[in-house]
Design a protein that fits this description.
- The chain has about 550 residues and is α/β, with parallel strands linked by helices.
- The protein folds into two domains: about 300 residues, Alpha/Beta hydrolase fold, catalytic domain (Rossmann fold), CATH 3.40.50; about 220 residues, Jelly Rolls.
- The protein is about 20% helix and about 30% strand.
- Strands 9, 10, 11, 14, 15, 16, 17, 18, 19, 20, 21 and 22 form a twelve-stranded mixed beta sheet that branches.
- A hairpin with a 3-residue loop joins strand 9 and strand 10.
- The model has no long low-confidence stretch (mean pLDDT about 95).
Length: about 550
């Protein structure tokens, strides 16, 4: 509570970690899922700051259902509860990232009368995106997620409950830990390996168009925990009420001081109702470019990331992007027109190259010894102009596999004139999952159905057309750089650790006038960044390495 008398607007955090234990000693030591620094700024600005643990988590009763519809219903109840308190002025905003971001989107869809605005960061709208991106199982994400989840309850929430002498809370924690054993995302992964009617109820993006309050959205292109996909929920929001902040970097960018300053102005405008000019001086789209850590290690919650430069635009629609095509060709070339010559092939499965394993402090793992036989690389000529690549991309490939089904990874990199290769982005696809939702797919965004009755088995030697979604990106390729596309077996990317098909086979990629394999990227015109390249190793989650490929 602010150190004042009267009634206050409320900043509400709702999550499944420790939000209900706000104010305890663990929280005050920054051992919390919340941002103590941001909460302090909110309190000093005259907000009451409130935390609520979702059903079945921490001390809360009920059944844990993650992002299913009850999350939004309970969130709406929490908003109305906060608005009704004697110390509240009835105006409520919601804050927080990750689970706290998902809960905001879920709550706003229920339109509680006293909710004024939300500031969701790093939103996981659909557990399918984290469990099986592109249909490729990624169970390596689930175990650490469970460990973090349960650690908050068993250690940090428990510590606060003991300090407060809350015996009921301590008993409920034990019940919730036992219940999570049989109701975890790992159970969901096993019992619903593909999309179905039940799994669709976890998808918050389906009803994002019901959100009718102002939204300040934050996402990181290389988000090592959940990817930046978020079901592309922002495209369903009212553009007159949306402000979008994007950046290269990690899942924890909500802690950046610059973003929290912007978020406070946003809340002052739309929760307090202060006419501070936010709508007049804040661009609809802000992209932090080449963001880097100013101090501290990558896992230091007190570090304050900063952008090397900032791109600001009005709302960017797909129609605002120039469609740029790069065609795969003989000799590992990316060209402006369809290629020719025989197919290229690689041995599957390969070890692949891990990127952005921040726990191991490894940002670009070593190439395996046999990388020349387990991967394909295609490189463009030096770019004639500076090129701002923005949004999702699509690798449209004609492929055949000698043994049957296989998993494909497409990696986008920049080859700089100084011989350094910079990681940009990735995407994945299980080839039997290639059936498209033709109504929603676009040239830059392939959307796959992923349902059991829509799978298309890959017969040995069968030639098929498969579109691989490359996740959102915002990268400035300078004149003289070359674009490179790698195709290989899915490998660890941040917290995503894949369980790919293990049948040894040869995967072939065709590229000729009849079977034209290409990559489509979106380009923003009229963007001029600084001419000097950023220092290698400094750009957050976009590591550099010496070019391993001899020649083009």
């Amino acid at each position: 509570m602010p150190k004042a008398t009267g009634k206050f607007p409320v900043a509400l955090t709702l999550n499944g970690y420790d939000a209900g234990s706000i104010g305890g000693s663990a929280y005050l030591k920054n051992q919390t899922s919340m941002s103590v620094a941001f909460d302090k700024r909110l309190i000093e600005a005259g907000y009451a700051v409130m935390g609520v643990s979702t059903a079945g988590t921490g001390c809360s009763e009920g059944r844990l259902e993650y992002t299913r519809p009850q999350l939004g219903r309970h969130g709406a109840e929490a908003v109305e509860f906060a608005a009704a308190q004697a110390w509240s002025d009835g105006k409520v905003g919601m804050v927080g990232a990750s689970y706290s971001g998902s809960s905001q989107l879920a709550t706003a869809q229920n339109r509680p009368p006293h909710l004024r605005a939300i500031v969701p960061g790093m939103v996981l709208t659909d557990y399918r995106d984290a469990m099986s991106p592109g249909g490729v199982p990624a169970p390596g994400f689930l175990t650490p997620f469970r460990v973090i989840f349960r650690t908050y309850w068993s250690q940090l929430v428990t510590q606060t409950a003991k300090e407060e002498g809350d015996e009921n809370c301590l008993k409920q924690i034990q019940k919730n830990l036992a219940a999570e054993d049989t109701n975890s995302v790992m159970n969901l992964f096993v019992s619903h390996p593909l999309r179905d009617d039940y799994l669709d109820t976890f998808d918050l993006a389906r009803h994002a168009d019901r959100v009718n309050v102002p939204v300040l959205s934050l996402e990181a292109f290389q988000d090592q925990a959940i990817t930046p996909r978020s079901g592309h929920y922002q495209t369903k929001l009212d553009r007159t009420k949306l402000w979008l902040v994007q950046s290269n970097g990690r899942h924890d960018l909500y802690l950046a001081s610059a973003f929290q300053t912007l978020a406070l102005r946003f809340l002052d405008r739309f929760v307090k109702g202060t006419d501070n000019g936010f709508e007049r001086d804040t661009p609809r789209t802000t992209v932090w470019m080449e963001t880097f850590d100013t101090d501290g290690a990558p896992l230091d919650r007190l570090a304050s990331p900063q952008a090397r430069w900032v791109l600001q635009k009005p709302s960017i629609r797909a129609s605002d992007l120039l469609l740029k095509e790069f065609h795969l060709g003989t000799g590992g070339v990316l060209a402006d027109k369809a290629g020719s010559g025989p197919a290229d092939g690689f041995d599957y499965p390969g070890a692949g190259v891990a990127v952005n394993d921040i726990v191991a402090n490894s940002f670009w793992g070593p190439l395996p010894d046999n990388w020349k036989t387990t991967s394909l690389a295609y490189t463009s000529a030096p770019l004639a102009n500076d090129t701002m690549v923005y949004g999702p991309g699509s690798a449209d490939l004609w492929v055949a596999a000698t043994g049957g089904d296989a998993d494909i990874q497409v990696t986008v990199t920049e080859l700089r004139p100084d011989g350094q290769e910079t990681y940009v982005q990735r995407g994945w696809l299980r080839l039997s999952n290639r059936t498209l939702d033709t109504e929603r797919s676009t040239p830059l965004l392939p959307i796959h159905l992923e349902r059991a009755d829509q799978l298309m088995p890959l017969l040995p030697g069968q030639l098929v057309f498969a579109r691989v979604e490359i996740n959102k990106m915002g990268h400035y390729f300078r004149k003289g750089s070359r674009l490179r596309i790698w195709i290989d077996t899915p490998s660890q990317t941040g917290g995503l650790v894949f369980d790919t098909f293990t049948q040894k086979q040869r995967v072939h990629v065709l590229h000729n006038a009849k079977y034209d394999s290409l990559v489509r990227l979106g380009v923003l015109n009229d963007v001029k960044g600084p001419p000097a390249y950023p220092e290698c190793g400094k750009v957050m989650l976009q590591p550099c390495r010496p070019d391993p490929v001899a020649g083009p």
